[in-house]
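Chain and backbone:
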Amino acid sequence: MDMLNVSLITLTWELYTHGVLQLRIAGDIGKNRDTIRLWIKGIKKYGLMEFLDRYELAKSGHRTPRKANPIVKNWIYQIREREEYCCGQKIQYFLEREHELHLSVPKIYQVLAEK
């Protein structure tokens, strides 16, 4: 685990327990306010040591690849042309039916905007 983040999480908790506001903590240690809020929420729920263990496991886990790889993009373009420039919802329907792939409509439009 990144020792810097372990130190920052521990420092965040110490500052918070001494009454320092989350916004001030975020500014002092250079992290986003939402990050500080999530750290504190997790520490309250699990305790400092268990939270650090969970944090380490989350950072070392497998990341799922992006769904819109070149093959998926090609499928989207093919469906769009085949179905006479249909809407994103219809493309989503055909992706699920033909390829058993669920992709959000905004993501489909994002891919179409790239072309």
Observations:
- The helical segments are 3-17, 22-29, 33-46, 48-60, 70-82, 88-99, 105-114.
- Residues 3-60 form one domain.
